[in-house]
Design brief:
Radius of gyration: 23 Å
CATH architecture of the largest domain: Sandwich
Order of helices and strands: EEEEEEEEEEEEEEEEEEEEEEEEE
């Protein structure tokens, strides 16, 4: 599986997986989520084989919470929330469940996902007088896994279910205020019974981007979202394969490439190296030879240039280890745009 194209923009990543009965809910971005009530990891239902999922029994205290953090407060006119759910029951008639809540009720800085007794699913500011948007009745189906994705780009909102568009709005009201905000999953505790129903079911693969939208994949996922950076771009007419630049190759991949280095490089010489691979991602992935440039991040100056070999391997050696760089791979065939890995820190050469 390629890396996560949105790793840099990801605010929260919860697989909600693990051993049956576990009460730990690790976030791949390092924030601490704790439970109240009886939320546990259960292997009774798994979005992907054997991983388990978070089971919410639907009790009044069954929630996952993360304390207010600055990472959840950088509100803009774009955001994205992607998740998989297997509901066992809909809220009671006339009530709704705020499944995922960023912020607190009544605040213009908050945003919530909401579904109700008729199976409507949508999102809005949890404050009165502002617009919202929803997929039609029956969007939420009981006793089966379904993948949802809500993405907003400069206030243009899109709601997808299983990669199909079910609702859109061109001017959604968005949260404001760059102050620390909490995240709560499974329901709200606003004090209003009409929106305080608890989620009853299983939840998995939650990804929250507080300040960036997300483009949906045209294909159904085959496994949990990736926990590392990956970059890929393709023409709209050919979604797969697409160009990929991977910055975490095996440690044993060592070879000399490119032209011999200068005997003395007073500007950029040092004891660092950057190693990587160039691939096209398909079924399966396959390596390609591409021209790769190393740019100094602070000013964009080209520091080195090499071609990856037939196996896709490249390396830049004897570069300064105290600077950040940008790695750019070019497709000389003209089929794909350049692929960029930003803020790459060299490792020290052995």
């Amino acid at each position: 599986m390629p890396g996560n194209l949105y790793w840099k923009d990801l605010s929260v990543g919860l697989h909600l997986a693990g051993a049956n009965g576990a009460t730990s809910f690790p976030d791949v971005k390092g924030h601490t989520f704790t439970r109240t009530g009886n939320v546990v990891i259960s292997t009774a239902q798994s979005r992907f084989a054997g991983e388990g999922s978070a089971y919410f029994p639907g009790g009044t205290n069954d929630l996952l919470k993360c304390a207010a953090h600055a990472d959840f407060g950088n509100a803009t006119n774009s955001l994205s929330i992607a998740w998989s759910m297997y509901p066992l029951a809909l809220p009671a008639a006339g009530t709704a469940c705020r499944l995922i809540m960023i912020g607190a009720n009544g605040s213009l800085g908050t945003f919530t996902l909401h579904f109700d007794s008729l199976g409507y699913m949508g999102g809005y500011l949890a404050a009165s007088g502002y617009n919202s948007f929803f997929g039609g009745p029956g969007a939420v189906v009981l006793n089966q896994w379904q993948d949802f994705e809500l993405s907003v780009f400069n206030r243009s909102a899109f709601l997808l279910k299983d990669r199909g568009l079910i609702a859109s709005l061109s001017n959604l009201d968005m949260p404001s205020g760059n102050f620390p905000k909490r995240i709560q999953i499974g329901g709200d505790d606003s004090g209003f019974a009409s929106v305080d129903a608890r989620y009853n079911g299983y939840l998995s693969e939650v990804q929250i981007q507080v300040y960036a939208g997300r483009l949906p994949s045209p294909a159904a996922p085959t496994g949990p979202f990736a926990d590392s950076l990956g970059l890929g771009l393709a023409r709209s007419a050919a979604p797969t394969p697409f160009a990929l630049l991977r910055q975490t190759p095996p440690a044993h991949r060592i070879l000399r490439q490119g032209t011999p280095r200068l005997m003395l490089d007073t500007d950029n010489g040092g004891h660092g190296r950057v190693i990587g691979t160039t691939k096209n991602v398909g079924t399966p992935n396959y390596p390609v030879a591409r021209r790769v440039r190393l740019l100094r991040k602070r000013d964009g100056a080209v520091v080195r240039e090499v071609w990856s070999d037939a196996a896709g391997n490249y390396q830049f050696t004897q570069v300064r280890h105290d600077l950040d760089y940008v790695v750019m791979a070019h497709d000389h065939t003209g089929l794909y745009n350049a692929v960029v890995a930003d803020t790459v820190t060299p490792e020290l050469m052995p």
